[in-house]
Design goal:
401 residues, Elongation Factor Tu (Ef-tu), domain 3, 22% helix, Rossmann fold, Dna Ligase, domain 1, alpha/beta
């Protein structure tokens, strides 16, 4: 569940008891600053020690007084109260600022197999994910990787080269799909990769003819036992942080659930927890999932089983557009759920170990930005600047199409 202690409440965790030193320039002389020790000078810096639990409030107070945060340094308990210079974070805007350790990407596997020399995998299973009465075709496809050295991490993508040739007689180009399984695969044997694929179907704008996506139709109709050309893996943008105490906000529409299924399995699946003794997730995961109808809730049973087992660590929120109404009486889309929960989301984003991920249709971005921009403005913060800062700190991750 949402924990108010991270901003403005009582610090009950080890992180909540940590201290940070703010170096501040430009504070105006006023009755409030007159009480500060040391007093405000006409020039130079003032150093303010702040507990982790009050970082956001102090940032806002400094901004109200016209100050600019030059750096934020953690107080090292082993250095007698001296801040460690190794983690300096600069601030150019005077806006609220947070800090995070970048993801170590040195060990990330990339392009083990390329289009000119793909891995030939074999389809193990191809199962429908849309229930009766749902819209469209979405399949969960498991591919055997035995005999090769294809390895991947949660949040990466795999390339698929469809069989056959295009209209010019040339081999089809690869398409990328977010991987829906953990590094161990659905069978926990390190020999499979899973994909979540929606069949693309649309009407040709000139002829009115029904057109089917080349690769998506190929995969959605592929039979178990068939060979399939796999490339990759690729991608470093959507990797799950190693921090076991992290807050992970996931915003998904449709098949954008794929990487988040991998995240959630790694966090909460019993078999995964046993297979990963060095990773024991104790933080908070929040998935806001946009779908058109209840039968379109992909992996519904899995998601709800994990939420029921770990209610204090996993929050699950649906935006079902054709069944639920927003506050104005229209269809409920993911941006409306974000707007409803904007205050909580904003407060969580102030934590230096909160990561926000967005995956799905590109059209979701503007509405989510609008909702969070309105909330940021209440705190005197420009959302675009704040989002850029999160991106710089490797805490804002987007993969839309």
């Amino acid at each position: 569940m949402y924990n108010p202690s991270v901003s403005g409440g009582v610090a009950t965790s080890v992180a909540g008891s940590r201290l940070f030193v703010y170096e501040v320039e430009g504070l105006r002389q006023n009755p409030e600053t007159d009480k500060m020790d040391p007093p405000i000078r006409q020039s130079g810096s003032v150093f303010i020690t702040v507990p982790y639990s009050r970082m956001n409030q102090e940032m806002q107070r400094i901004t109200r007084m016209g100050g600019k945060i030059v750096s934020i340094l953690p107080v090292d308990g082993d250095s007698h109260g001296q801040a460690s210079p190794a983690t300096t974070a600069t601030q150019d805007t005077g806006k609220a600022m947070t800090q995070a350790k970048p993801q170590d990407k040195k060990a990330v596997p990339v392009n083990i197999y390329r289009p000119k020399d793909p891995f030939i995998g074999k389809v193990i299973s191809n199962e429908p994910l849309v229930g009766e009465g749902g819209i469209g075709v979405v399949q969960h496809i498991v591919i055997d990787l035995s005999g090769g050295d294809f390895e991947y991490l949660e949040g990466q993508s795999a390339g698929i080269i469809p069989a056959g040739t295009d209209e010019a007689g040339k081999p089809h180009k690869l398409r990328l799909y977010s991987i829906a399984s953990t590094r161990h695969g659905d069978k926990m044997d390190d020999k499979t990769v899973s994909l979540c694929v929606r069949e693309l179907v649309y009407q040709h704008p000139e002829t009115g003819e029904t057109v089917y996506g080349t690769c998506s139709s190929y995969l959605c109709n592929i039979e178990p036992g068939a060979d399939v050309k796999v490339t990759g893996p690729v991608g470093k943008e959507m990797l799950l942080p190693d921090d076991e105490e992290a807050t992970v906000i996931m915003l998904a529409t449709g098949t954008g659930i794929a990487p988040f299924r991998a995240f959630l399995w790694r966090m909460f699946k019993d078999e995964e927890r046993q297979a990963n003794p060095d990773y024991d997730f104790k933080g908070h995961a929040w998935l806001i999932f946009g779908i058109p109808k209840t039968p379109n809730i992909l992996y519904k049973e899995e998601l709800e089983a994990m939420q029921a087992k770990y209610p204090d660590n996993f929050t699950l929120t649906y935006a079902i557009s054709r069944e639920q109404q927003n506050a104005e009486g229209g269809r409920m889309y993911i941006q409306h759920r974000v707007a409803e929960n904007a205050a909580k989301l904003w407060e969580l984003m102030q934590k230096p170990n909160t990561h926000t991920y967005m995956c799905g249709l590109k059209g979701m971005e503007d509405g989510i930005d609008e909702a969070l921009s309105a909330e940021a403005a209440k705190h005197g913060v420009d959302w675009t600047d704040f989002r850029k800062q999160m991106k710089k700190e490797h805490r804002w991750h987007v993969e839309t199409y």
